[in-house]
Design brief:
The protein is α+β, with helices and mostly antiparallel strands and 127 residues long. It has a single domain, classed as Nuclear Transport Factor 2, Chain: A, CATH 3.10.450. The protein is built from 4 helices and 4 strands. The chain has a 4-stranded antiparallel beta sheet. The N and C termini lie far apart (40 Å).
Length: 127
Amino acid sequence: MLFMALALTSTTVIAQASEEIMKQRASEMHSLIKVDDADKHKEFILKNYSKKLLEKYEMERHTGMFKMINKDFRDSKIVSMKPNVKENKLLMLIERISDKHQVTFDISYDPKDNYKINGMGIEAGEM
């Protein structure tokens, strides 16, 4: 019984830590969306994107994505974050302050690479 209790507690602690890493990366990404600074974007990308994602596209494509999102959502706030550790993803709903337009970032993470960002999709409205 004690072993089962320790195993369950350990699994819960690991899941909570994973959720916090996912939330922290998403929150930091949102903060940088609000900043028009390609050097800071690149620094974030190198530190927080998985090796697999970094190898998939050229850096210009990654930084270009930040520039595009910055243009549309520099005046935004996070409405909610819904991590799903089992699926290695997080849904982050953000809202543009000026007109209340909402988009959802569907962010996937690589659990084998310290939950670094492994991909992202953006959908209009709440998911």
